[in-house]
Amino acid sequence: MNLRRVRLGPGAEFDRIRSMLEQDAALRGRLGLGEPGRDAVLVGPGDDCAVVHGAGIAISVDLSVEDVHFRRDWLEAEEIGWRAAAAALSDLAAVAAAPVGVLVSLALPPADDSGNRVMAGLSEAAARHGALLLGGDLARSPGPLVIDVVAVGRTGAPVLRSGVLPGDEIWVTGRLGGAAAAVAAWRAGRAPDPPARAAFARPNARISEARWLAEHGGLHALIDLSDGLAGDAAHLASASGVRIVLDLADVPVHESAGQAGTAGDALALALGGGEDYELCFAVASGTGDALAPGFLRTFGLELTRVGRAVPGEGLFARERADAEPRPLGMGGFSHFGPAAGPLPGERTGNSA
Amino acid sequence: MNLRRVRLGPGAEFDRIRSMLEQDAALRGRLGLGEPGRDAVLVGPGDDCAVVHGAGIAISVDLSVEDVHFRRDWLEAEEIGWRAAAAALSDLAAVAAAPVGVLVSLALPPADDSGNRVMAGLSEAAARHGALLLGGDLARSPGPLVIDVVAVGRTGAPVLRSGVLPGDEIWVTGRLGGAAAAVAAWRAGRAPDPPARAAFARPNARISEARWLAEHGGLHALIDLSDGLAGDAAHLASASGVRIVLDLADVPVHESAGQAGTAGDALALALGGGEDYELCFAVASGTGDALAPGFLRTFGLELTRVGRAVPGEGLFARERADAEPRPLGMGGFSHFGPAAGPLPGERTGNSA
After folding, report:
1. A278 and chain B: CB distance < 8 Å anywhere?
2. Nearest to B103 among A48, A61, A68 (CB)
3. Residues B199, B341: one domain?
4. Do residue B180 and residue B148 come from a single domain?
5. In chain A, which residue's Cα lies nearest the Cα of B113?
6. Within this chain, do residues A147 and A165 fall inside the same structural domain, yes or no?
7. A204 close to A296: Cβ distance less than 8 angstroms
8. Looking at the structure, do residues A106 and A58 belong to the same domain, yes or no?
9. Does one domain contain both A318 and A189?
10. What SS3 string covers A260-325?
11. Which of A251, A268, B235, B249 falls 20 to 30 Å from A106 in CA-CA distance?
12. At residue A90, what are phi and psi to the nearest 5 degrees?
């Protein structure tokens, strides 16, 4: 039985929504995904609410604002939509939930004809991550393009930020600082490396990876790296009531970040650069080493131990294993803090 | 057992979120609502996702943009927040769902110190409608204040737009056009009547009313009046594949709309004015008359029959019971249609 699609009423706004839904359906067809089934969703787009069957529903929301989170001269409209969806879906990865769908609010400047292209990229990201487009809202904006994505997922046993125990090891997936390297290049007036540009423009939410880790073993805590390793490790420490000590020499730096001026610059991009959307997790000592080979075989992605938890509080770091750990600033991007700037580029470099 | 509240990390952005959560908790205390229980919500603010127990989850999202949906010189910051929450929660009323909570995305202009006041009004509206603050996102805006509210509710058997049958009667709660009368007054340079101003500034989502109606009897279809009676009745007709004929003489006009220049002006406000957030529903002939006295006793609010459904399609209206029905324009507010203007005031008058 197919998803109930309510027939939309007349009017120019509904024409726009209708064309967005049509392109979402067309994209699902091209990807061979077919019509969503009614076992997953009782009511989809067109009614007042999306209604989702099942227990243990995870819901998150992620806001993307033009000239704050992205710039139009850096990204194609489709990439703006993809990023907005991936950022929201990454919050589902961060609790090891399985995506059900997304709802999308879009505020479009007058005479801006990029709405459908933004939604095309968004639909593609949603479909490729296993999420349906469940609904949304659409309005004019007298200023910037604004995209707010609600991600809805299912989880029987969410893995939270607050489970880190003293003695745990802290691990990350993939390599860090690629998105920040792209922003740094743009801000310096250069075109970024293709891998860095791809990291910023089409990030992947680590949904399958998070669920594999949760199923295979003993995750104590999990977070996605949206604010940068320094910022998000500080969140883990704070939520869990432990101190986390990062081993700076072990942080896996993205190839493009590695081309930054100095080793210190590269590390600053990897620690302070937000929006890598890799995972950071805590496991008992030894567990990560047991998981890494199978994870690499399954996803072609490295797992790297970057630190450990000890009694205490706050985020610390040490240059070498025999050095004394020192407090590390939060380093995440803050929209409101004294170091905040108008663009993601300023997320980098304020951390170490 | 209390709701799990994750301890937030350091930083100015989290300080803001923390202060907003604190004011939400303080408000719940003042209202005597206490801490939310873990039977309803497994994970609340501070983690990556809100996780809600239970089956039949309804989720909706509603966007409010400065100078599109509201103006700062018309409303206090708290009222802006209240309206944004009520508009989103009204979508739960529109499917007869019981609120669980809201997530709030807020894009704030730099140096705008009204964020906490907006959130105070929003928290109050949420609490008074039985919704918890589950999470959200916060960013700077280089332009307007933007508020996007996700409403999450529970519903075993949602009442949809698509169930109107030929022969059904169409009924509404309350009186229509009050919010539009306030906007018309502001745009004419006058202060609105207090009742009209209250209708626009502090609307109530008809949550309890919708659930009462769903429990008491035989609702075939339900919608909330966010686009105006003409617009939303057209949605009912379109979603259900029927024609709806409104009896214009029976439309209950709000006292403030009734003070508009002519009877035609008053009717235009009642038909075309969005954001009354009253309910419109379809029932078999006779059911509404049986419900109305108990509804009035329970809520102090009138139920009024405004039309009927017949075979066919589209929205029609007649001036008198013996007149020939004629097609009625959609009349709802469109952000993108040719009649769209920069402000809600332009929602009125383009309908009949």
Report:
1. no
2. A61
3. yes
4. no
5. A336
6. no
7. no
8. yes
9. yes
10. CCCHHHHHHHHHHCCCCCCEEEEECCCHHHHHHHHHHHHHCCCEEEEEEEECCCEEEEECCCCCCC
11. B235
12. -60, -30
Answer whether A56's CB lies under 8 Å from A98's CB.
Answer: no
Residue A56 lies in a domain: yes
Q: Helix or strand or coil: residue B94?
A: coil
Q: Letter for the amino acid at B76?
A: E
**Residue owning tokens 């993601």:** A344
Integer Cα distance of B50 and A91 in angstroms: 10
Whether B308 contacts B244, CB under 8 Å: yes
Whether residues B147 and B179 share a domain: the answer is no
Q: Where are the beta strands (DSSP E) in chain B?
A: 41-43, 50-52, 57-65, 98-108, 132-140, 146-154, 169-173, 219-224, 243-247, 279-283, 303-310, 314-318, 326-327
A261 C-beta neighbours (distance < 10 Å), count: 8
Candidate from A7, A49, A68 with C-beta closest to B58: A49
Q: How far apart are CA A308 and CA A302, in angstroms?
A: 18
Residue B147 falls inside a structural domain: yes
A210 and A72 in one domain?
no
- Terminus-to-terminus CA distance in chain A, angstroms? 55
> Which pLDDT tens digits describe chain A residue by residue (352 residues)?
333 454 555 566 557 656 656 666 676 677 676 655 544 444 444 455 455 555 578 888 999 999 999 999 999 999 999 999 999 999 999 989 888 888 889 999 988 888 888 988 988 898 889 888 777 888 899 999 999 999 998 887 788 888 999 999 999 999 999 999 999 999 999 999 999 999 999 999 999 999 999 999 789 999 999 989 999 999 899 889 999 999 999 999 999 998 867 778 899 999 998 889 999 999 999 999 999 999 999 999 999 999 999 999 999 999 988 899 999 864 433 333 333 333 333 332 222 2
Q: Which of B18, B38, B49, B64 should one mutate to test binding to chain A, selecting the residue with the greatest count of A CBs within 10 A? A: B49
Residue B6 lies in a domain: no
Distance from CA of B39 to the nearest CA of A (A): 12
Contact call for residues B229 and B274 (beta carbons, < 8 A):
no
CA distance B41 to B50: 8
Residues in chain A: 352
- Residue A318's domain comprises 161-347
Tell how strand B326-327 and strand B314-318 pair up: antiparallel
Q: Does the beta carbon of B343 lie under 8 angstroms from any beta carbon of chain A?
A: no
Q: Do B162 and A53 touch (CB under 8 A)?
A: no
A158, A335, A342: residue with CB nearest B43: A158
Is A47's CB within 8 Å of B160's CB? yes
Distances in whole angstroms, Cα of residue A86 to Cα of each of A80, A81, A145, B298 = 10, 9, 17, 47
Instruction: Give the total number of structural domains in chain A.
Output: 2
- Of A131, A154, A177, the last residue of a domain is A154
pTM of the model: 0.84
Same-domain pairing of B120 and B28? yes
User: Is B113's Cβ below 8 Å from some Cβ in A?
Assistant: no
**Predicted ipTM of the assembly:** 0.82
Whether A7 is in a domain gets the answer no
B259 touches chain A (CB under 8 A): no
Residues with Cβ within 8 Å of residue B314, at least 6 apart in sequence: B234, B237, B243, B244, B327
Q: Which of A119, A154, A189 is the last residue of a domain?
A: A154
The DSSP symbol for B316 reads: E
